[in-house]
From TrEMBL:
GO molecular function, one term: hydrolase activity
Domain of life per record: Eukaryota
Main location: other
Keyword Electron transport listed: no
Protein's recorded name: Strictosidine synthase conserved region domain-containing protein
GO cellular component, as recorded: endomembrane system; vacuole
Pfam family, one: SSL_N
Length: 352
């Protein structure tokens, strides 16, 4: 009986200590990790044109707030013109042919994309109206206002070809274009190998439209993907997909030319865009430790504040398996977060 009483007393003491820790300021860390969650099932369908067409890989709005513009698997960038008109072709890479670039059961898009191109990152320079396209196979391209055939600007830097051109953003003041090359060893069709091998040959580059010159700002990055320039134009935030991190590269100030960890993430990041509040929305391809069973919900995106802290999340059912989740703030509406992702052949967007 005495032994049982001592065990019971010890258990009660442990319980009291645990409760005190829970209510003490320093012991509230578990509760502080709870962040507001957005339900991604609130969607509106934007059906893609018929056929074996996959997308989007990226989206953008022009200076008038029109769009979205979206890159798709046959090498084109499409523009959404409202429910009555739907999608129309806005631009395509040099050498594009609808006959040769249209996928079929016997000819999947992976067999044609090296010839037809695969637009990934998209970003408008709002003042000039130029659309910059990071095409995985063609390199960095530019499209004149009104669309049509794109012009290839950069295919190699310092003698090394662009093998997996991925993310892009534009300094709206200077017009300088920042973009990533995810690997010097693997192409987009081999993207799983970039993660599997821990490939760290990715590069961050800057193209100056005034001089036509491109420079490598940072080499040796592990799977650099999407990127975004900060609101104050002092740094870039870069998705490092394989390591599940966000990196910060300084382009102004005392730390100019240095790169550092910005945030550790619970999933594999893809695209990233400013949230117009000093932070960023980052899309997740999937969670780091996600299981195929259990609760039918997983992370699709996170909002990160200026200090690299997770302050909001977006969740959806596990049936949502995006090829790429891409987030953007509509430049006209002050509180409109849009998310595009892929269910098979259908593009969805969420307006919040």
């Amino acid at each position: 009986m005495a032994s049982s009483a001592r065990v019971l007393a010890a258990a009660m003491a442990s319980l009291v200590v645990l409760m005190l820790l829970m209510f003490m300021p320093g012991g509230a860390s578990a509760a502080s990790t709870v962040v507001p969650s957005i339900d991604a099932t609130r969607t509106r369908h934007l059906p893609l044109p018929r056929g074996l067409l996959r997308g989007p890989e990226s989206v953008a709005f022009d200076a008038k707030g029109q769009g979205p513009y979206s890159g798709v698997s046959d090498g084109r960038v499409l523009r959404w013109n409202g429910d009555k008109v739907g999608w129309t072709t806005y631009t395509y890479s040099p050498g594009y042919s609808s006959d040769e670039c249209t996928a079929s059961i016997l000819r999947p898009e992976t067999a044609t994309e090296s010839q037809c191109g695969r637009p990934l990152g998209l970003r408008f320079h709002l003042k000039s109206g130029y659309l910059y396209v990071a095409d995985a196979y063609k390199g960095l391209m530019r499209v004149a206002p009104g669309g049509g055939e794109a012009t290839v600007l950069v295919t190699e830097v310092d003698g090394a070809p662009l093998r997996f051109t991925n993310g892009v953003d534009v300094d709206q003041v200077t017009g300088e274009v920042y973009f990533t090359d995810s690997s010097m060893n693997y192409q987009r069709s081999q993207h799983e190998m970039v993660t599997r091998t821990g490939d760290s040959t990715g590069r961050l580059m800057r193209y100056d439209p005034r001089t036509g010159k491109t420079v490598v700002l940072q080499a040796g990055i592990t799977y650099p993907n999407g990127l975004a320039i900060s609101a104050d134009r002092t740094h870039l935030v870069i998705s490092s997909t394989g390591p599940c991190k966000l990196l910060r590269y300084w382009i102004k100030g005392l730390k100019t030319g240095t790169i550092e960890l910005f945030a550790d993430l619970p999933g594999y990041p893809d695209n990233v865009r400013p949230d117009k509040r000093g932070g960023y929305w980052v899309a997740l391809h999937r969670e780091k430790t996600e299981l195929p069973f259990g609760v039918d919900s997983h992370l699709l995106a996170l909002r990160i504040n200026a200090d690299g802290e997770i302050v909001e999340e977006m969740r959806g059912p596990k049936s949502v398996r995006p090829v790429r989740v891409y987030l953007f703030l509509h430049i006209i509406v002050s509180r409109c977060i849009c998310v595009l992702f892929l269910y098979g052949k259908v593009t969805h967007s969420t307006i919040l």
